[in-house]
């Protein structure tokens, strides 16, 4: 222990360089200062804003060399590197940009500049995904091309990336794996959008940096950034949805000084049964969430650390139960609604704790040490509100150590080792056990090289992994080891107005205990599941090609892909019924293919500032080598968004705002597996408006009013990935909403 403390203190003492980072940001064309531009030292977690004269000042003990970027709406972002030996005031000229097409974006998953990455990464702010309000986080994610949502009502949703979901899509929060029994189709993400700033989606096998399970892709959430140095922010928000009487309330406080930063959030969501297009209510589609978040950041010289904690307590009704002797879709409906708890329902309690550390060492080395623990308690109550029929506790401890070495501005080597130790336990008082008590351990080592060769950015890497699964249940004897070696290679070439990317990557997924050993009725999924001990490791190989074209007022992205998975594990419906549930058995195919395309364009017609037209198309096809279709493949989709600006220059008036129209057409899904039913095509129309009120003399005080209506035409439709489709229940009908948020900002020190 003493040796560990000695090494830790030694790292803290390396390269302390007290300095003041000062700069001036101006318009390149007019040479006038640009106020309220955001300056981010993203590796350090420090940010600042320019004043009315375009000046920013960062007073802190900084490493000798660090990277930063500057962004301001309607300007192209600026990215640069600062050396501690530089003493002159930095002068930065920003070019105007009428459309956010080719902005410099820092990819949180690796700390890279997105436009230089060999892999196409979808990055969205949560606020962008809520321009028409989303009821839950899964619905918000489904607005990203290639991403869908599998749901059981509004309380349970999980992401589907290019036809894959569950344990094949890895979800991370600030780099920490979110483990919450996601193997179950009725087990949602157990996350809300509270305090989350951005989401990145990496589509396709991503085992190189994250190990087992990322066959379909990565959903990487990042918390909201800390406020700027010397600034305190306070925010209060509330919204109400008329369909389901859904209320969402949140409060947040941020403050920062030279070395210390803190974010605090708390929220409460409550929803009654939602209304169907026929004006009946879906019984037991109610839910409530209690959320709290804390982020504490500190930097001193070459050391940057963040401690983050997230707490979630949810009660989620599970629709689909009826005592009628003759079951019809009307058996699950009522002419009355309620938000009181009723069986069956899920009780979910999540604790997510992480400790991130980054050390800036000599000779351009960066050492990252991240530790985390997630504790998930999932209970299902079937007969009464007090005694859980199913109760599982999942504790997951993770570590990730990575060393980066930079060579100039175009090359770097990343090596690291990563691991996870997981314990799953059933409560002794619970009468049901879907999966046995088990321990699981992962360990992996990887090395990745990024460089520039003949005008191409090239990346190549390799990784070795080992997973051990041991059942500790006296009634079952099982222990097995799964291993895999994976690789990734890719290249990117930038031209004046276009970018080409191509990558070949492999990934693996060890079978989950639920697939190996399940034997019981899964109430939320409305089926009986049986596992197989003979399952092998899944292995995937994907070719991904991206072409991007951008001009000042137009952009285009075309992204075809082909993903082949060997030893594919899937739920195979068999012609049998147990406990009044259809029986599904886990089976394995020699190889399957998932292929398709994500494509879209974005137009900003000049000279109408603020007007945007965006169209996206997503298509995925999944089939066995024999040509038969895979189950649970999402419908193809065309999404169109028109964003129209509005506003005035009056004091404390609507000086910013927009009106948005979102239209999506979902194609029919008739390429289905045996015992799966077809889904008809449907169209959805959503409308939204956002109005920002601010006092010109105190522009830091803002009131944002939102309103809109979803499913304007009250369309009766069924999502192919909805569990409610199995009982003949459509998605919710027309939904009006209102929202109000108040932001107060004080530019003064609080310590």
Task: Characterize the structure shown.
By secondary structure, this protein is mainly β. 4% of the residues lie in helices and 57% in strands. The protein is built from 5 helices and 42 strands. The strands form 7 sheets. The chain has a 22-stranded antiparallel β-barrel. A 5-stranded mixed sheet has the order 10-15-16-13-14. The radius of gyration is 26 Å and the shape is globular. 43% of the residues are buried.
Question: Which key phrases capture this entry?
Answer:
single chain, 751 residues, mainly beta, 22-stranded antiparallel β-barrel, five-stranded mixed beta sheet, 42 strands, disordered N terminus
What helical percentage do the residues reach?
under 10%
Distance between the termini: 34 Å
Mean of pLDDT: 86
What's the count of strands? 42
**Gyration radius over CA:** 26 Å
For this entry, what is the oligomeric state of its chains? single chain
Strand proportion, as a percent range, falls in: over 45%
Structural class: mainly beta
Tally of individual helices: 5
Largest sheet: 22 strands, antiparallel, barrel
Unreliable segments (pLDDT under 50, ≥5 consecutive)?
Answer: 1-18, 649-654
Shape: globular
